[in-house]
Design a protein that fits this description.
Layout: E1 2-4, H1 7-12, E2 18-22, H2 30-46, E3 49-53, H3 59-63, H4 75-85, E4 89-91, H5 103-114, E5 117-123, H6 136-146, E6 149-153, E7 157-158, E8 161-162, H7 165-173, H8 177-184, E9 188-195, H9 200-203, E10 208-211, E11 222-229, E12 236-243, E13 254-259, E14 270-280, H10 288-306
Parallel strand pairs: 1-4, 2-3, 2-5, 3-4, 5-6
Antiparallel strand pairs: 7-8, 9-10, 9-14, 10-13, 11-12, 11-14, 12-13
Helix pairs in contact: 5-6, 7-8
């Protein structure tokens, strides 16, 4: 997948017909996936490329830097999901560079002249441009005069609820992993590089892989039955903990993973932790021994869940 940060990079690629979609695409849920499927189909029909335009930072992070919405996917995770889906080009400018564009300027300067869009595929609730004043009707009218087609894709539902990044965040916050999995079409996951920790887990008999979250806010917290990919030909079973570790005086949120029947040096490895089921919330214990007893119970419960 080709990646572009500036329109000038696309100009160097020469003229290319494109089917284009625009959006945050945080999480790549079932609704996003349906838009991407139709995007790829349109691109194949015209003999062009399928291009996703998104933003960095995401708009909600830009406008609320102190209290941003918990991001479902970091940039690297979003990039990989789009590439795995079969998207050929990814244009991700700085949000500040396009935030003040009027609908007319966004359409003409970005979509038509910049991206050479022959067809645009968006959700039926699509809004765009400064203050989100651009509407689907505005886009369709411009398509008639500028010569591009527009497809509006209806939302996709899971158990009579429309799949959305907002609802997935809410479900993650209460540990409803079945709804999350249903709306994503996969288990929710977090990826990152394994870093050195304090070594406390090893002393307690539970050596953990510590992963930096690299998020302003994390959408999950607590203890989970999990599967880990990136270390073997198949996923490995384990217990994942996301929290501040209050029993040992922790402050910063951290992802820790205890992998069953695994004893290898993996510092610096890039792994993905797939959250299967939430076992419980994070707790502060009176002492480390009490916490250790609970960890044994967590492992037993996770093994039972993951054995199915």
């Amino acid at each position: 997948m080709q990646f572009y940060r500036h329109l000038s990079q696309l100009e160097k690629m020469g003229p290319q017909l494109r089917a284009v979609t625009v959006g945050a695409y945080d999480g790549i849920h079932l609704g996003h996936q349906e838009i991407l499927r139709q995007l790829i189909g349109r691109a194949q029909e015209m003999g062009g490329h399928a291009l996703v335009m998104s933003f960095e930072p995401l708009p909600r992070e830009f406008f609320s830097p102190d209290q941003p919405a918990a991001r479902l996917t970091r940039f690297r995770e979003r990039y990989k999901l789009l590439a795995d889906f079969g998207i050929e080009e990814f244009f991700c400018p700085k949000f500040s560079s396009i935030r003040d564009l009027s609908p007319q300027h966004f359409i003409q300067d970005i979509l038509v002249k910049g991206l050479n869009a022959s067809h645009i595929v968006v959700g039926e609730d699509f809004r765009f441009a400064a203050q989100r004043i651009g509407t689907l009707d505005c886009l369709m009218s411009a398509g008639v005069t500028s010569g591009f087609g527009v497809t509006a894709v209806p939302g996709v539902c899971y158990k009579n609820q429309r799949a959305s990044s907002t609802l997935i965040r809410e479900s993650l916050s209460i540990g409803d992993m079945k709804t999350v999995c249903g709306m994503l079409g996969r288990h929710y996951s977090i990826s990152g590089k394994v870093v050195r920790g304090l070594g406390l887990g090893k002393k307690l008999g539970f050596p953990t892989a510590n992963v930096n979250l690299n998020r302003r806010r994390t959408p999950v917290d607590g203890i989970f039955a999990a599967r880990i990919s990136g270390l073997a030909d198949k996923e490995l079973d384990g217990v994942a903990s996301v929290g501040t570790r209050p029993t040992v005086g922790g402050v910063e949120p951290l992802l820790e993973v205890f992998i069953f029947n695994f004893d290898e040096e993996i510092y610096g490895k890039y792994i993905t932790v797939h959250f299967v089921e939430r076992l419980r919330e994070e707790r502060k214990y009176l002492d480390v021994e009490t916490m250790k007893e609970q960890m044994h119970k967590d492992v037993a419960e996770a093994q039972l869940i993951l054995s199915v």
